[in-house]
Amino acid sequence: MPLATLRRATRETVSGLPREFWWLWTSTLVNRLGAFVATFMALYLTLDRGYSASYAGLVASLHGLGGVVSSIGAGVMTDRLGRRPTLLVAQSATAASVALLGFMHHPVAIAAVAFLVGMASNASRPAVQAMMADIVRPEDRIRAFSLNYWAINLGFAVSSMGAGFIAEYSYLAGFLIEAGMTAVCAVVVFLKLPESRPGTEKATATTDDVRLGTVLRDGRFMSVVGLSFLVAVIFQQGSIGLPVAMGEAGFTPADYGLAIALNGVLIVALQIPVTRFIQDRDPQRLLVVSSLLAGYGFGLTAFAGSVGLFALTVCVWTLGEMINAPTQTGLVVRLSPAHGRGRYQGMYTLSWSVAALVAPLMSGFVIDRFGAEWLWGLCAVVGTVAAVGYAALMRHLSAATAAETAVTEKSEESEKFEKSAATEVSPA
What we know:
Layout (H helix, E strand, L loop, with lengths): L2 H12 L4 H15 L3 H12 L4 H28 L2 H19 L5 H16 L1 H12 L5 H29 L1 H22 L7 H8 L4 H6 L1 H18 L4 H8 L4 H26 L4 H17 L7 H29 L5 H29 L2 H54 L3
Helix pairs in contact: 1-14, 2-8, 2-9, 3-4, 4-5, 4-6, 4-7, 4-17, 5-6, 5-7, 5-9, 7-17, 8-9, 8-14, 8-16, 12-16, 12-17, 12-18, 14-16, 15-16, 15-18, 17-18
């Protein structure tokens, strides 16, 4: 792609978004630049503290369980207290708990604080997504979510490289740096982001009508949550099943690092042009294609016998990830009522948190009992099921939307006719 064309594409992708979005985007980027705990927790516990691999796995599970617990609570807070207060509480609590974790030595204390870190760090997600939906126009949301996803991966890629050098010097320094960066995010939110909850006075009354039971009874939305869970279980295998399978096949950690590094590199390099390609495309087709790319990308891993072939499979499912993330997030916003976005986003976040708990158990069981080839075959099956589910859901959703539009147009025409008739019979 010529440089001038690339510049024009980038300018068109980032233009037209409100200033508040860019402050939120900056907060996301700074947060991910400081990521340390999730990346190096296992190494910290086994190499620095001398604990067993099973204990490290327990702590990782408790960290994930904290995210599951906070998903729903943070969604309710986002609707009741507002987006901005929830972000401030979540990021302040994350900064404090991460700093505290660096000073813990007793195994029970480490596990308990890791649970708190998981709760606090995951609590900001529903608020971020709801605020983004509030401040960005509907036609720009896919672009905005894609840019936010790009910031997450750019920050993670940079932090992963930097954290490796920091860990060689001091793991405690890594914890304190992450705590400091998260505190900076809280300051950005406090100084630059106004509350975005629509119609604060009206929202208080309307929000009472949108309860967790309302979300659970919303069949269309819960179908999206279920399909999101299936896709999330597949993508989790990049950091769970793939390193185990490559290790059993005789490849080194460096080989795995080389292959998986392509995931972050491709997202950072291609997310913006991919966004331009998908922003006006049919979401049904995008979700179906992304599910198949994810499922069969991991499915092809069964035939990989070299680092190059493993890297090729990473390229396939990474493309599915780049298409799925912004499209699915846009669908979630589309199905969420404005005054209940926090609860809806919390339930959507829950699907990924539960997947983070289920995926390690599933991959370990399948690899131990049947072999890695069965895991990759299962990924292909799950991807196919998700693709069929999205196709059916979006078909019904399109039909329902068309019916709702027709009813709205008919109502508007009737209202215009009544006004016209009233004008004709009114005295001069």
